[in-house]
Amino acid sequence: MSTLLIEGGQVLLPDMRVVEADVLVDADEGGILDVGTDIEVDADETLDASGGLVMPGLVNAHCHAAMTLLRGYADDKPLDAWLQEDIWPAEAELTAEDIHVGTELGLLEMIKSGTTAFADMYFDVPEVVDAIDEAGLRARVGHGVVTVAKDDEGAQADIDESLDIAREFDGAADGRVTTAYMPHSLTTVGESYLRESVAEAREDDIPVHFHANETTDEVDPIVDERDERPLEYADDLGMLTHEDFVAHGVHVDGAEIDLLATRGTGVVHCPASNMKLASGMAPVQRMLDAGVTVGLGTDGAASNNDLDMFDEMRDAAMLGKLATGNASAVDAESVVQMATQGSADAIGVQSGVVEPGANADLVVLDLDSPHLTPAHDLVSHLAYAARGSDVRHTVCDGQVLMRDREVLTMDESAVLTRARDHATALVERAE
Q1: Same-domain status, 264 and 212
Q2: Any known ligand binding at 211?
Q3: Which of 86, 107, 124, 289 is the least buried, fewest Cβ under 10 Å from its Cβ?
Q4: Which residues pair with 10 in a beta bridge?
């Protein structure tokens, strides 16, 4: 057995206590062996955590990684106009190589900002999986399905691709990749297609992930047409189980919140995207109080405009207070749990905590900087003051992906060069 010892720092425990301890990792199996002050072992590899905090790797529970190529391309527009006028036309010009390169850029950004696992809904998923395999991260992936404006043959082909991808790539990248069936939303996939495809996914125990209640334009048509709320409709279709998770949940009412809690379906809060697109303020504290599993996601870099989960924690805490008019709402401990344990539970990975038996998905945060001084409350610092650039080391599945800010699994300069070239060519084609 090959071991990795992360030594000399403080450790964030699952109950949000911070203690001085070392962390011993089985680098072969990718799990945490021990957390404590009396670990005596001649480890094969060590990471220096002195002056730092060992914490769970952050889990970005909803994103579209390849959209890094469209970062800053179309800003300051409402969701519908942004999609129809800019994003969808540009995405129509994407090549498989574009998606590989854009995903690489997203993975590089996540490694450097302390994210070790993520959920990704996009296209050309084999390219996404290949990039994940090379970079060393953990992910739940799926092909996004849209049936509107397609004939039956085209719609069915899109659904078949998503289901086939989910079957083929589950367990890829030495088990670091899992999959889901990913219809885009309840308004972009027709009812008959949803009903049949979700039933087919259930036959193979494939989880379902979709956008829900992001804007009132998503909610009102369903209420007007069906006289029921969107998540009630989703429940009728069998899309809300404890293995499923939805993105956004901005415009949910009390009955829908209770339904999510009863079914055990996770909700991924994307505060930066929701603010930037003026989608609204999700009732996060009400969901937490009801027992809903709430995670955090960045959404795509085209609507955020970065993949830094530390930024997302700060946004979630601030927006939660503004939404309720209560400065105690969505407190620091809650958002840190959302970005770690909550997101991991939502997307179904055994990460998000530093304890024996969990996946060794870890980061070491450097505390020796002016904006993290003094250290009255490190959990508060994680929510309100830390930045992705404070991450010193990143570990996923027991493997060191970044040591002392140097990414070991990717050629950073080459990734940046390819991304610039592909983004320029993509925009030229789109325009």
Answers
A1: yes
A2: yes
A3: 289
A4: 20, 53
Query: Do 72 and 108 reside in the same domain of the chain?
Result: yes
Domain that holds residue 17: 3-55+362-406
pLDDT one-digit tens code per residue, 34-88:
999 989 899 999 999 999 999 999 999 999 999 999 999 999 988 888 888 999 8
Domain count, the chain: 2
Looking at the structure, do residues 104 and 241 belong to the same domain, yes or no? yes
**Are 132 and 38 in the same domain?**
no
In a domain, 110, yes or no: yes
- Would you say 62 is a known binding-site residue? yes
Q: 267-293 pLDDT, tens per residue? A: 999 999 999 999 999 999 999 999 999
Identify whether residues 143 and 130 lie together within a single domain.
yes
Q: Which helix (H) or strand (E) holds 58?
A: strand 58-63
Query: Average pLDDT of 170-192?
Result: 98
Residue 236 marked ligand-binding: no
Is 422 known to sit in a ligand binding site?
A: no
226 and 292 co-located in one domain: yes
Residue 319 and residue 395 in one domain: no
**184 in a known ligand binding site:** yes
Tens digits of residue pLDDT in 118-157:
999 999 999 999 999 999 999 999 999 999 999 999 999 9
Of 421, 394, 420, give the one whose Cα is nearest residue 405. 394
Q: Are residues 48 and 67 in the same domain?
A: no
pLDDT of residue 83: 86
Q: Round to whole Å and give the CA distance between 192 and 143.
A: 19
| Residue 22 marked ligand-binding | no
The answer to whether 306 is annotated as binding is: no
State yes or no: pLDDT of 32 exceeds 90: yes
**What is the pLDDT, as a whole number, of residue 106?**
98
In a domain, 426, yes or no: no
Tell me the DSSP string of 231-293. Answer: HHHHHHTT--STT-EEEE-TT--HHHHHHHHHHT-EEEE-HHHHHHTT-----HHHHHHHT--
